[in-house]
Each structure stands twice: as structure tokens, then as C-alpha cells.
Design a protein that fits this description.
The protein is mainly α. The chain is 69% helix and 0% strand. The protein has one domain. The radius of gyration is 25 Å and the shape is globular. One of its GO terms (biological process) is protein localization to plasma membrane.
């Protein structure tokens, strides 16, 4: 009891601590133990229901218009030669990259989350206005010439290094880092946190995007699993390469237990974490590649979707995840204590297989003309639209749940991935057309590496960035 207070007053004060406190603004004078502080931290990141699918799509589209803005500004600088973008301008390029690529994404997930649609529209309008203005200022541009370029555009051979896959991967990493660092603070909206059981939050989307973005560029997706050596050797190497993930998973368990860091047990379980999930998915994919050719993985995906959702909905697997083996949410034994992480790995594995199929679609043939990429864009758009059309009907069976990684969650994730990849590819095509209007010789790969310094750096140092 607090000194000088009645029991009811003391109870009321403690209740106010739990009601109004959070990690950044906790009235320390009413805190009696570190356990109480830890309990507040756990409550701060738990029991959330998320937001709408539409809002998550808009948040994830802010990076798309950010890339649009950045490339529009670089186009303006290139046309008017206002300053050099050579090797000596690394700091200037980095500043442009941060202001255009990172800052809008950071604002959309933190301080400007309440004005999200305004932020998205503002960046889009500025980028579009810049492009329109520059088109009018191209000396050699005429409507007749523009119409001719539109007609000839599909047949143009591609010399540029298209960036849509790199952008997709890089922004998955950037968004992951921002969310992980911001989630413990009040500036990060609670509706963007991982949901408790059902719902759609930004961080729910983040883990799925991370899985799919790695699958899209995996050796299986690029058909590199059977080149140069036998399958057994490749599977063995893949399993060995999973050991660092297992080590990181164990290290996280030890450190969180050692420093008494808050644990959200219903996320993955008592000991399980996302590193173990990544390792499990990678090992399962390696074993499957040894047993079955990648050509037949699509049938495995369909079968696993049906079986996984059937067990969740009709055989009590969902109830087991929520209630545990004792029926009261307890955790008894190593398997029951980590039931969320173990069972959700099946759903993440399904997502990985979907990602491999997307990667095979992207990399299955060498695309040499604009027409080839326009056809790919059409497939991505139609596929994404189809999945989002089906999604509301699937949620009638069971709502979207990252905790279960059920089929509605998997379909939602694949739909978002296709949407983002299509958007980034559209930007590549738009600026390729604008370059063709300039009627100037391209500078080639060296220029692209300079212009995409931050994106390339993020992709090259992905694991270090996340850690």
C-alpha cells in the first residue's frame, strides 16, 4: 500500500499506472518493482486488433511514391545539369536518398500516421508535377514525337537494369527496421503493432513480406538449385547455411531472458522467435527441393493450403493455439510452450513456396524488350486484383490471423507483394519511357549503381541492417 493512502486509493493509483503509462511516459514514482515495469512494457505491445487492409496497403505504398519522387527529382537534375551526380557526390546523393526514400516512410509509420492519405497524395502530386514540368522543358519534345515514341515504346530494347525487385526487397528491410525500433515508443501507432490473434497490422504485414521477399530471389526461384552440383550437396549446404539463423535465435532467447526483456508469448511462444522460423522455412524448402522438383511445388502449395486451413478451422488447431493443451492458455513442455511459432512455421513455409513461384515467374525467361515487361506487369496486376477479390470470401471462413498464419493471411500477404512489385515495375517503365523522350544515349550500368546507392547498400547489407 502507498504511504498516506487508503487501500482503495492505492489500488486506484496502481490502476491509473496501468491505464495511462507506456514505455516512454511511465510515472516512475508509482512504480515499485522492475516486474511491474516489465508488465507495463508487455501490455504496451499486446492485445492489439490492428487496422484495415486498405490502410496497410496505403502505408506500404508510401515507399512506392517515395521512389517515384526520388527518380523524378533525379530526372530533373539530369535534364538541367544543375549539379553532378558523379562519384564525388556521395554525400549529396545520400541526402537525397534519405529525404526522398527514408523520411516519407518513417513519417507514415510514426508522426504522420494520422494524416497518411494526405502524405501519400502530397508525395505523389509533387513527383507527378515535377515530371510534367520537366517534360514541357525538354527542348526537342513535341506532341508528334511523343506519339511516335508511345507507338514504338513496346519494341524498345532494355539496356537499363530494372530496379523493381531491388526496391521491393530494400523497402521490406527498411520498413522492418523502422517498425522494430519504433514499436516500443508512443510515436508508433498501436494499430500498426502485431495483432494479438485476428486482425491486420503493419508489423503483421512486415514478417510476411520478409519471408516472400527472400523467396522471390531464392536459388529455387532463379532455378539455380540443380546447376553445377547434385541436389544432396546443395541441400546440405543450405542446411549448414541455416545454422547462423539458429545461433541468432538462441542468442536472442538468452539475451532477452538475461536482461529480463518483455516477452509477448502469444507472438511465437515462450522460446521461439522469428530467427527460428526463418531457419525452419529454409530447411523445409531445402528438403522439399531434394524430394521434389521445383516444377511441382505449385501443387504442394495448394495441398498445404487446404490441409493447413482444414486443421485450423475444423480440427481444433486454432483453439489449441489459443487455449493450449490444458484448455486455459497454459504452457506445458517445450512444444506446447512454443505452439504458435511451430504451427505458424507451416504458414510461413506456404508463403515461401508462393514467393518461389512469383520469383520463377519473374526470372523464368530473359526479358529483352519493354513489351516483355509490360506483359509481366499485366500478370502481376491481374494476380493481385484476383487475390484481393477472393480475400473477403476467405475471411468468412476465418479472419486474417498472423498468429495462425492461416490461408487468409497468406493470401493477403501474397496480394500485397504482387501489388508492390507491380507498382515498382510500373515506375521503372514510366521512367524508361521518359528517358526515351529525351532521345539521349543511356549511360549504362555504372550510372545506375550510383543512382541507387542507398537501395543497393540496404540490399547488400540486409542481415547486418536488421541485426
Amino acid at each position: 500500500m502507498l504511504i498516506g493512502c487508503t487501500r482503495s486509493e492505492a489500488t486506484g493509483r496502481h490502476q491509473s499506472v496501468y491505464q495511462y503509462s507506456n514505455i516512454l511516459d511511465i510515472p516512475r514514482r508509482t512504480m515499485t518493482t522492475m516486474e511491474e515495469y516489465r508488465d507495463l512494457q508487455e501490455k504496451f505491445v499486446a492485445n492489439h486488433t490492428g487496422t484495415s487492409v486498405l490502410e496497410i496497403s496505403v502505408v506500404l505504398s508510401v515507399p512506392v511514391v517515395s521512389v517515384f519522387l526520388r527518380r523524378a527529382l533525379l530526372l530533373a537534375f539530369h535534364i538541367h545539369a544543375q549539379f553532378s551526380l558523379g562519384e564525388s557526390s556521395v554525400r549529396r546523393i545520400f541526402m537525397i536518398d534519405f529525404l526522398c526514400l527514408v523520411l516519407p516512410t518513417l513519417l507514415s509509420a510514426t508522426t504522420h500516421s494520422e494524416s497518411l492519405y494526405f502524405l501519400f497524395s502530397s508525395v505523389l502530386v509533387v513527383a507527378s508535377g515535377s515530371i510534367i514540368l520537366q517534360c514541357y522543358r525538354i527542348p526537342s519534345l513535341s506532341w508528334k514525337y511523343a506519339k511516335t515514341r508511345v507507338k514504338d515504346f513496346p519494341a524498345i530494347e532494355i539496356n537499363d537494369r530494372f530496379q523493381f525487385i531491388s526496391n521491393f526487397k530494400a523497402y521490406t528491410l527498411i520498413g522492418t527496421v523502422i517498425s522494430i525500433l519504433a514499436v516500443d515508443f508512443t510515436v508508433f501507432p498501436r494499430r500498426f503493432c502485431k495483432t494479438e490473434t485476428y486482425g491486420t497490422g503493419l508489423m503483421d504485414a512486415g514478417v510476411g513480406l520478409f519471408i516472400v521477399s527472400n523467396a522471390v530471389v531464392s536459388p529455387e526461384a532463379r532455378n539455380k538449385m540443380t546447376q553445377g552440383q547434385n541436389r544432396f550437396s546443395q541441400v546440405y549446404k543450405s542446411i549448414i547455411s541455416s545454422l547462423p539463423l539458429l545461433v541468432l535465435g538462441l542468442a536472442r532467447v538468452i539475451t532477452t531472458k538475461g536482461v529480463n526483456y518483455q516477452e509477448h508469448a502469444t507472438e511465437y511462444g515462450t522460446h521461439w522467435n522469428f530467427f527460428f522460423t526463418l531457419a525452419a522455412v529454409k530447411i523445409l524448402a531445402s528438403i522439399l527441393s531434394f524430394v521434389l522438383s521445383v516444377l511441382y511445388w505449385k501443387f504442394v502449395v495448394i495441398s498445404l493450403c487446404v490441409v493447413h486451413q482444414y486443421l485450423l478451422t475444423y480440427r481444433g488447431l486454432s483453439q489449441y493455439i489459443i487455449q493450449g493443451i490444458d484448455g486455459h492458455g497454459g504452457r506445458h513442455g517445450i512444444l506446447d510452450s512454443n505452439r504458435e511459432g511451430i504451427i505458424s512455421s507451416v504458414g510461413y513455409f506456404i508463403m515461401y513456396l508462393f514467393g518461389v513461384e512469383i520469383g520463377r515467374l519473374v526470372f523464368k525467361k530473359e526479358r529483352k524488350t519493354v513489351s516483355d515487361y509490360m506483359n509481366l506487369l499485366g500478370v502481376l496486376v491481374i494476380s493481385a486484383a484476383s487475390l484481393f477479390t477472393v480475400l473477403p470470401y476467405l475471411t468468412q471462413i476465418e479472419p486474417i490471423s498472423r498468429r495462425f498464419t492461416n490461408v487468409p493471411y497468406v493470401i493477403w500477404m501474397i496480394g500485397i507483394c504482387l501489388q508492390l512489385m507491380a507498382s515498382y515495375l510500373l515506375i521503372d517503365l514510366i521512367f524508361l519511357f521518359l528517358k526515351s523522350l529525351q532521345n539521349k544515349k543511356e549511360k549504362g550500368i555504372k550510372e545506375d549503381k550510383i543512382l541507387y546507392s542507398l537501395i543497393d547498400a540496404v540490399n547488400y547489407n540486409g542481415m547486418i541492417l536488421v541485426l
